[in-house]
Amino acid sequence: MTKIVFMENDACQDEGQFGDQFGRQIEPIAAYVPYMVVVGNHEQAYNFSHYVNRYTMPNSEHNFFYSFDLGAAHFIAISTEFYYFTEYGTVQIANQWKWLIDDLKRASANRDKYPWIITMGHRPMYCSNYDSDDCTKYESRVRSGIPGTHRYGLEKLFYTYGVDLEFWAHEHSYERMWPLYNRTVYNGTKEPYIDPPAPIHIISGSAGCQEYTDPFISKPSPWSAFRSSNYGFGRLHIFNETHLYYEQVSASKDEAEDSFWLIKQRHGPYTSEHRKKLKKFGTYVP
C-alpha cells in the first residue's frame, strides 16, 4: 500500500496552466495519500508564487524546505533553486542552511527512532547527462557551494551528519549511483550497498515531459551504476532500521528496470573509518 508520494517538481510552469492540468490528473491520488513536493526550476516564474500557494507542506510557510518523520526514516526536503539566483542575494541560502543544520542535529540525536536520513532536492550534485547542466561540471553549486567562496556546499554537510540516501531530479532521466563522496566512488567491493562509507545518489527525473528525456554521455561516468532514458518512477520500501529497497519502474513496460537493496547495520555520521574504507576501495574521479 502506498503511504506517501514524492514529487521533485517542475509542475507549475506556463503561468499555472500546466500546474492546473497536472493537479487534476494527480487528484485521485493526492486526495487520499500525502503528496509531498520539492521546488524545481520551472516554478521560478512570479517569484515561485504558484509553487508557494498550491501546496502546504508540514512545518513550513513557504514549502521551500521542510522535514518530517515517516516509518523508520527522517525525510528532508530542500530548495536547490536558492543556489542559482544569487544575483538577488544569499539570504535565502543562509536561512535554509541554518535550518538544515538544526534539523540534521535533531535528526542525528533521534536516530534510535528514525535511523534513516533521506534528502530530496531538485538539481543533483552529480550526473552523466549530455548537456550543460550544473551537475555535469567539476564543482556543481549544490555540491560545492557558491562559486568563488564555496560557502553552503551540501555534500560535506550531508556527509558530516551521515545522510543515507539522496534523491534528485532535474535531469529528464534515471540514474543510480555507487556510494559517492567528494568525487570518490565506492565500487571496489562485491557488495557496495552493504554498509557503504558514503551516501547513495538517485536521480529520478523522467516521470514525463514535453521536452522528452535527456541524453547521456556515451561512456558512463565512474559513479554511474545504472542509467535509463525511459519514462518512469521509483518505489521506495523501507522495511526496517537496516534494510531499504528501491526500484525504478518503466512507465511503458510497467515493470522494474532497476532495483537495489541498501543495507546498513549502523546509522550515524561518517567517520574516519568510513573515509579509510572509501579511500581503500574507492576510485577518485579527477
From TrEMBL:
Domain Purple acid phosphatase C-terminal, chain residue ranges per copy: 198-259
Molecular function per GO: hydrolase activity
Keywords for the protein's UniProt record, in alphabetical order: Glycoprotein
InterPro entries: Calcineurin-like_PHP, Metallo-depent_PP-like, MPP_PAP, PAPs_C
Domain of life assignment: Eukaryota
Calcineurin-like phosphoesterase domain location: 14-174
Pfam families the record matches: Metallophos (PF00149), Metallophos_C (PF14008)
Record keyword Glycoprotein present: yes
Protein name stated in the entry: Purple acid phosphatase
Source species of the chain: Cercopithifilaria johnstoni
